[in-house]
Design goal:
Elements: H1 6-15, H2 44-68, H3 77-82, H4 89-106, H5 119-129, H6 132-144, E1 150-156, E2 162-168, E3 183-189, H7 196-199, H8 203-210, H9 216-224
Antiparallel strand pairs: 1-2, 1-3
The structure holds fe (ii) ion.
């Protein structure tokens, strides 16, 4: 068995996913809450389709790519992403889709369970954005301006600072094809499949409601793992 770095192992643990990819071993992680637990911010039908159909599709397609390309056997999801330029576009799309959604479910929680940003994370947010409110405003604006499908991220850069970034499609900041690169500790899916049933074209309403279910306990824990 290939040894994983401490960082890889911690991330895999957080994502509740297999650390190694043998053929057809990537699996859809269970939601950490009931499908209606994020309502009214995110309705149960959207959660059901998003998790059970879209995310499952990325997992199935990724496993099909692992079967096709022997270079992928034995690699963790993070290892695939960090070297994704070497593989077929379908690997980029589906490994990204699997990682992004696995993170997304965990950085949300029912409003009574979201907690607060840790002192360390709050201090870094103030240092890099001025205030929590300024951070939320900048993040929301970045997410609203993504043209078409994509994600908004809060990443920890290699120098330890926080940065807001956006990616198209199912790209993410771990990929060697993406700039800036960093460790994502919060991500927001702005594909229409994430909100259209309830919000139709009103992406900003979805973003505003999403803040009510951001799991600050989880985001703070992910930030702590980067220190
Ligand atoms: Fe999605």
């Amino acid at each position: 068995m290939r040894l994983l770095s401490s960082r890889h192992a911690k991330l895999a643990l957080l994502l509740c996913m297999p650390m190694l990819a043998h053929a057809s071993t990537f699996e859809l992680p269970a939601l950490p809450y009931a499908k209606d637990a994020l309502a009214p911010s995110i309705d149960a039908s959207t959660m059901d389709i998003h998790h059970g159909k879209h995310h499952q599709g990325y997992v199935n397609n990724l496993n099909a790519e692992v079967e096709k390309d022997p270079r992928l056997a034995g690699l963790s999801l993070q290892q695939i992403l960090e070297g994704v330029s070497a593989y077929a576009p379908a690997v980029r799309n589906n490994a990204g889709g699997h990682f992004n959604h696995s993170l997304f479910w965990h950085v949300m929680a029912p409003p009574v369970e979201v907690g607060q940003s840790s002192d360390a994370l709050s201090a870094q947010i103030v240092a890099d954005f001025g205030s929590m409110e300024a951070f939320k405003t900048q993040f929301s604006e970045a997410a609203s301006k993504i043209f078409g499908s994509g994600w908004a991220w809060l990443i920890v850069t290699p120098d330890g600072t926080l940065q807001i970034s956006t990616t198209a499609n199912q790209d993410n900041p771990l990929m060697d094809t993406v700039t800036p690169r960093g460790t994502p500790i919060l991500g927001l899916d702005v594909w229409e499949h994430a909100y259209y049933l309830n919000y139709q074209n009103k992406r900003m309403d979805y973003i505003a409601a999403w803040w009510n279910v951001v799991n600050w306990n989880e985001v703070s824990q992910r930030f702590a793992l980067t220190r």
